[in-house]
Design brief:
By secondary structure, the protein is of the alpha+beta class. It has a domain of 67 residues. Helices cover 50% and strands 23% of the residues. The chain contains two helices and five strands. Strands 1, 2, 3, 4 and 5 form a five-stranded antiparallel β-sheet that branches. The longest helix has 56 residues. The mean pLDDT is 79.
Length: 147
Amino acid sequence: MGGTLKWCKNCKSLQMVKIIPAEKYDNFSSKSRNFWFDNGSGEEENRIHYFQRKARCLHCDHEWCTVEYDYVDMVNLTLSYKDLIKKNVGLKDKIKSYKDVVASMEKTQISLTIDYEHKKGELRELAKAFKVILNHIDRIEELEGSI
């Protein structure tokens, strides 16, 4: 029995698989199954070539897509990723700090809004009391004028 030994996630073990030729399925955009991963730099030398094909586990018949790539390209990609991580050390803490500042500002805004509404209510009550006092003064003046 020939075949290729690959990890089957369904069986959760290494199993013999059968490689399915591209002609047998049509869910890939290229019959050649050759693709390029562009890291977003737009530079051709930073693209990584990979080869895509389907495999079927000979034990459980589970099918999946496999990807093969040049080992050196993947090592370089991993090193680039590590460099990116190093450059962004502390970024997570900075973002959390900014979020904390925004949350604090929102609480302050809510507090100021509550204080404003409370003071506005107090001023309305004072205005009503002041009108009552002015009415009393007017009545007192009327009574004094009638004496």
